[in-house]
Design the sequence.
């Protein structure tokens, strides 16, 4: 056991290499933190761009099934690379355990709920509501997880969590009223359908998207610990891509080419779809995972709060969607509710 230096005596001198290591540690920690913040920030903004790109494609004549199908077709090769890369040997040279039959079916189920259903409902809803309202509804995801955990896992809901959940839904209601007032600019209504019906239908579809992803989050807990996040996301996304492509074919054949027709789209729609698959799908998946790895999940999720704010800015700049006080107040209310819910949940677990 090493003894302390007597008072008045200088501490033992460190070697040159040790002095350099100690001096470099704060710089390394700062660099790691900055890299994590950058990854989480860019990933959140890139994810938000998905809705903007989809609405631009709608203006070019695409429908929701075409947008989903083209996005997944272009993203599939990249997800296959991600899944292959995550299955390579680790730092110790040990290969990951091969997937069991049960794990394969779990991955298919998670891909169906978390990526196939969530994506399809989301893009269908975006045909009727603004990108800002879509992002606000999707941010209700933690509240849905909380309710599902109480219903099916017997988890106790505490009063601060109830208050935070109510606050979040009040925020969404405020943004919803913004959409209603600005329906001429934000709602793509169909023949004979009023603005109220269009916004209500779109809101329900996007909420179903959030519900599907909440089910994915609840079901992926144990599996992600066994496989790792990149391996699970890679294979689950591959499964979802195949499902979306099958859906695209069925819709195209069933409608005799009236829906799902990509051949008649201009080149700009194909360019936007490539942007959607890369910068708004695959790249942010990796960036957010990297941000969580460097910062931890709580800090990365707080950085992700920039998502709704970036959606408002991008929707105003590229889609001409109006920015009103209701939109800003409602979005801020949603974010405040989610922050309070996150802290209340952490306190309850502690």
Sequence:
């Amino acid at each position: 056991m090493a003894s302390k230096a007597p008072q008045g005596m200088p501490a033992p001198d460190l070697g040159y290499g040790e002095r350099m290591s100690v001096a470099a540690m704060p710089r390394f920690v700062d660099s790691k933190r900055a890299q994590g913040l950058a990854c989480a920030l860019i990933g959140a903004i890139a994810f938000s761009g998905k809705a903007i790109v989809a609405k631009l494609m709608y203006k070019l004549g695409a429908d929701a099934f075409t947008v989903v199908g083209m996005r997944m077709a272009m993203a599939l090769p990249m997800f296959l690379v991600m899944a292959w890369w995550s299955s390579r040997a680790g730092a110790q040279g040990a290969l990951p355990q091969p997937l069991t039959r049960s794990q394969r079916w779990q991955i298919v189920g998670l891909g169906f709920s978390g990526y196939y259903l969530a994506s399809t409902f989301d893009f269908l809803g975006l045909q009727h509501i603004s990108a800002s309202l879509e992002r606000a509804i999707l941010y209700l995801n933690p509240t849905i997880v909380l309710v599902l955990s109480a219903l099916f896992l017997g988890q106790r809901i505490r009063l601060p969590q109830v208050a935070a959940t109510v606050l979040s839904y009040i925020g969404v209601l405020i943004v919803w009223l913004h959409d209603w007032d600005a329906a001429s600019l934000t709602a793509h209504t169909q023949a004979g359908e009023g603005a109220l019906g269009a916004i209500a239908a779109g809101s329900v579809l996007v909420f179903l998207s959030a519900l599907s992803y909440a089910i994915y989050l609840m079901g992926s807990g144990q599996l992600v610990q066994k496989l790792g996040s990149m391996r699970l996301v890679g294979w689950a996304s591959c499964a979802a891509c195949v499902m979306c492509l099958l859906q695209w074919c069925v819709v195209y054949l069933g409608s005799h080419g009236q829906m799902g027709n990509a051949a008649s789209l201009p080149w700009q729609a194909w360019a936007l779809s490539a942007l959607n698959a890369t910068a708004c799908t695959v790249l942010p998946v990796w960036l957010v995972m990297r941000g969580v790895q460097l910062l931890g999940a709580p800090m990365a999720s707080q950085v992700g709060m920039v998502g709704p704010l970036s959606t408002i800015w991008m929707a105003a700049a590229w889609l001409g969607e109006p920015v009103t006080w209701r939109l800003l107040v409602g979005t801020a209310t949603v974010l405040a509710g989610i922050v309070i819910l996150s802290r209340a949940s952490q306190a309850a677990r502690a």
Observations:
- The chain has one domain: 43-87+99-349.
- Residues 43-87+99-349 form one domain.
- Residues 1-14, 16-25, 185-192 have pLDDT under 50 and may be disordered.
- The first helix runs from residue 16 to 59.
